[in-house]
Amino acid sequence: MSIPIREQTEPDRRERKTYYLKVTAFRRIFIPFCEAIYRTFARLELEGAEKLPAEGGVILAANHLSNYDVFPLQFVISRPVFFMGKEELYRNPMIDWLLRQLGSFPVYRGERD
Fold this sequence. Notes:
Structural class: mainly alpha
Largest sheet: 2 strands, parallel
C-alpha cells in the first residue's frame, strides 16, 4: 500500500526560517519573567519528575486545554522544552518570531509532518 504524497507547487515556507532548538538569549529572559507572573496566580505541582532522564532525548506528550499550557510545563521541568505547534500559530509574523525564539517549530496537521 502506498501513501499518496501531496505535490508541492512551492517550496516549504519552513525552510526559509531559522528554528532555535537551543536556549536563546530571549528565552533566558522571557521564561523566568512568565514564570514569575504565572506563579503569582497559580500553584504548580510536578509528579514523576524522577522518571525523566537528566540528559538525552525525551518526548513529553502533553494533553493540553489551551495554547498557553506549554509554559507551565517549561516552568516545572529543569531542562529546556522544545515544542511543536500547529502551523496556524505561525501566520502572524510577531507570534512566529516569538515561538521560534522559544524553541518551537510548526507542524502541518493532516500531512506527513
